[in-house]
Design brief:
Enzyme class: lyase
Number of strands: 7
CATH superfamily: Hotdog Thioesterase
Distance between the termini: 18 Å
Pfam families: FabA
Shape: globular
Number of helices: 4
EC number: 4.2.1.59
Protein name: 3-hydroxyacyl-[acyl-carrier-protein] dehydratase FabZ
Order of helices and strands: EEHHEEEEHHE
GO molecular function, one term: (3R)-hydroxyacyl-[acyl-carrier-protein] dehydratase activity
Helix content: 10-25%
Length: 178
């Protein structure tokens, strides 16, 4: 993944819910190009942060071994602007899961104010799906994925629903040494 719209996870319960944060700063390049002279975080990037937070939960349902892609936002609402110096808190919850994919509900808050709310459906791409032969098996190299999960704190705070700690080896990922 080239752009990360999540800085760290402070809660991660495998197959259930996650809480992630994104600090917005004046040093973020996108801030200056969105509305000239009025730096705000674009709503499209807030939506992407919501998708990354919930998409990671959905991908983990399949042990990070299958291609899972954002299929659609079934609901997406924004309320207000996010300014430099503020921190977005993304809270994602897995909803309905089916053989074809899973739904997640995500909110974005700045302090006590709900800035955005979304319902997102992620499709699970099966090997026998039409056009699948043209798609990569995975979106991430295992080392890159493991690095991102460690940097954002997923394995530091991540637990299974029974409270036991998550470990990279459970998902066929290498231990992070960086």
């Amino acid at each position: 993944m080239r752009w990360f719209w999540v800085d760290r996870f402070t809660e991660y319960v495998a197959g259930d819910r996650a809480v992630a944060h994104k600090g917005v700063t004046l040093s973020d390049e996108f801030i200056h190009d969105h509305w000239g002279g009025y730096p705000v975080m674009p709503n499209s990037l807030i939506a992407e942060g919501m998708a990354q937070t919930s998409g990671l939960l959905v991908s983990e349902l399949y042990k990070f071994q299958e291609l899972v892609v954002l299929a659609k936002f079934t609901k997406l609402e924004f309320d207000g602007l996010v300014l430099p110096g503020q921190t977005l808190k993304y809270t994602a919850q897995i909803g309905a899961t089916k053989d074809i994919g899973a739904q997640a509900t995500v909110t974005a808050h700045v302090g006590d104010h709900q800035q955005a709310h979304a319902e997102i459906f992620f499709a699970r791409m099966h090997a026998d799906s039409a056009g699948r032969e043209e798609m990569p098996e995975k979106l991430f190299d295992a080392d890159d994925l493991c690095h991102w999960l460690h940097v954002t704190g997923v394995f530091r705070v991540g637990v299974h629903q029974d409270g036991s700690r998550m470990h990279p080896s459970e998902y066929g990922l290498p231990e992070y040494t960086g």
